[in-house]
What we know:
Layout: E1 3-8, H1 12-28, E2 34-39, H2 42-55, E3 58-63, H3 65-75, E4 80-85, E5 89-94, E6 100-105, H4 111-114, E7 124-129, H5 133-146, E8 152-156, E9 161-166, H6 172-179, E10 183-185, H7 191-201, E11 205-210, H8 216-222, E12 231-237, H9 241-246, H10 251-257, H11 262-276, E13 280-284, E14 293-299, E15 304-310, H12 315-337
Parallel strand pairs: 1-2, 1-3, 3-6, 11-12, 11-13
Antiparallel strand pairs: 4-5, 5-6, 7-9, 7-10, 8-9, 13-14, 14-15
Helix pairs in contact: 2-3, 7-12
Amino acid sequence: MQNKVIVFSDNQNLTSKCLEKIEKSLLKRGLFDFSFLSCSLYADCVGFCIDAKNSYDNAIIICDNDNVDKLVEASKTDTDNLTLIQEQAIKLEQTTTYRKMLFVPIELDTDKFLDELLQSKDVFSCSIFGKSKNFVVSKFEEIKAQKENFDYKIITNSAFLHIVYYSKFVDESVLVEKFGDGLFATNDKDLVVCCGEILRRNSLSISICDGLTVGKISEKLSEFDENDKINISESLIMFGDNSFEKLGIEKTFLDEHGTVSKETAFVMAKNLLKNAESDLALVVSGFDCDAGRCFVAVGNKKEIHVFSSVFYGNRNERMENVSSFALFRLLKFLKEKY
């Protein structure tokens, strides 16, 4: 069964978020056969709707609320049946071909209306970090070759972070064999949720010193659960040498080791634990443009580990990848120690 998704809005940021959300929603229903279209012009959307109506089994149209009625009128014929769902979404069904269309305002939660249009079946998911997408594809192709009626879909959120939905159960031991430490969850939990659950379960406080992502890591952890916040003892964003002074790191030390080095990241974490009196410290250094890397330190009062990796892309992509890298290292430390 083929499924078509059309998103119509002149807000590009809203369109991108909506596409990602509905893709995940479809995959969670075990629906792997779908295609996407996005547009910002009403005339284009009308054309896409008419084409989808005549060539796909199901079509889902997500658009601004003001345009729903107009698009329905432009798409339907006298033989179509209309159903209003919870007075918010409209289902249009062709009585002669069994094709269905669902019109949902972009302002609403699309998820709650999809069951009116689509049949669900079992689907599973896992989260993988630190592997290239080509590597993940190759390993799932190996699984597919051994499983009958097996299908999968990969959503890549950053250069290192992938969520894989698959249509038939695969034992976790098989996934561990394929991905090792790169497999951090098999229930579609993201890095923030995985870290947050362990921090909250053990009543751990954490201090964060951020020299690159402008508070992105603290922001993500703060949004983990608005009803039961993670205890972030301190969140320090590094700007200039005075930030190092706040951590008690002298200029002579920085002159010897540099502001972006494993030695400096280690001392930053050590002093952060001491000054903030928290259970854990997470440090992200600045970015070494020549080497294309930064350092991440994570630890407690007993031990501190320092990691580095190379990060590509523009500034926003680097920030997203570095924050994912830091959270993954925090998660590994939490799993090993707590």
